[in-house]
Amino acid sequence: MEADTIASAIILGIVEGLTEFIPVSSTGHILLLGELLGFDSTGKTFEVLIQLGAICALLAVYTVKLTKLVLATPYDPAARNFCAGIVIAFLPAAVMGVLLHDFIKTVLFETPELICTTLILGGIALLYIDRRAPAPRYHDATHFPLWLAFAIGCCQVLALVPGVSRSGSTIGGALLMRADKRAAAEFSFFLALPTMTGAFVYDLYANRNALSMNDAVIIAVGFVAAFIAAVIVVRSLLDFVSRHGFTPFAWWRIVVGVLGLAILTFAR
């Protein structure tokens, strides 16, 4: 295996970990960066499977809190409500993801211009939401009512389009429905666990006959890089959002989208 392939896998893994839990679209970033690096994985599977590194990072940081919630489920109505809310929020994107899997992987993932456009439009939307969202009513992610969880899950369906951002769509939707910024980001964290795990398992199954040992090596390298980068982000994001909101991420999306379109225009 060539050294530049390993180097690309490390770079893409770091980018995955840094961007998975912030509203800038990790998939959009690694697809665009992969295009620039000339990196091409089997069935675009690398880009999905390295998300396992980010999942493990989230579990590592939230182990104590998640364990307490699960153990409290049999006797605590609030814990049961939270677990039910995560399941309900997960279902819309899970169903649509299975139905549209082939179209997403073979068409949307292969259209960098679309990714750049959705990065820009999502950035503009996030700017508006961050500044004009209604006064918050819900301040604890573990106490969101079930209707709010389902509505956030419906917003997550938008993230099936690369460049939209899973965290961006769920956080933006939560803010519009009167969750505060910290609670919206934390609920997005929790919802990431079943969503990303489901995407990982389904994509691994769908491509089980196409993957080779070389694929396994670069996926493992990307996994480790994503895990390390994601731990840093998960530990610091909630405090950053509480102080600065989502405007910095919105501008980042717009800059990356514009630069991406410019590069694609002049490179072809």
Automatic annotation (TrEMBL):
- What would be one Pfam family of this protein? BacA
Compartment(s) of residence: Cell membrane
Tell me how this protein sits in the membrane.
Multi-pass membrane protein
EC main class here is hydrolase
Which biological process, per GO, is one annotated for this protein? Answer: peptidoglycan biosynthetic process
Which residues does UniProt assign to the signal peptide? none
Catalyzed chemical reaction(s): di-trans,octa-cis-undecaprenyl diphosphate + H2O = di-trans,octa-cis-undecaprenyl phosphate + phosphate + H(+)
> Its Enzyme Commission number?
3.6.1.27
Transmembrane regions listed in the UniProt entry: 48-66, 78-100, 112-129, 141-164, 184-205, 217-238, 250-267
Instruction: Cite the GO molecular-function annotations of the record.
Output: undecaprenyl-diphosphatase activity
Q: Name one GO cellular component term.
A: plasma membrane
Q: Which UniProt keywords apply?
A: Antibiotic resistance, Cell membrane, Cell shape, Cell wall biogenesis/degradation, Hydrolase, Membrane, Peptidoglycan synthesis, Transmembrane, Transmembrane helix
UniProt-listed InterPro entries: UppP (IPR003824)
Purpose of the protein: Catalyzes the dephosphorylation of undecaprenyl diphosphate (UPP). Confers resistance to bacitracin.
- Miscellaneous note of the record: Bacitracin is thought to be involved in the inhibition of peptidoglycan synthesis by sequestering undecaprenyl diphosphate, thereby reducing the pool of lipid carrier available.
Q: Which NCBIfam families match?
A: PRK00281.1-2, PRK00281.1-4, undec_PP_bacA
Q: Which family does it belong to?
A: Belongs to the UppP family.
Name of the molecule in the record: Undecaprenyl-diphosphatase
Q: Which organism is it from?
A: Acuticoccus sediminis
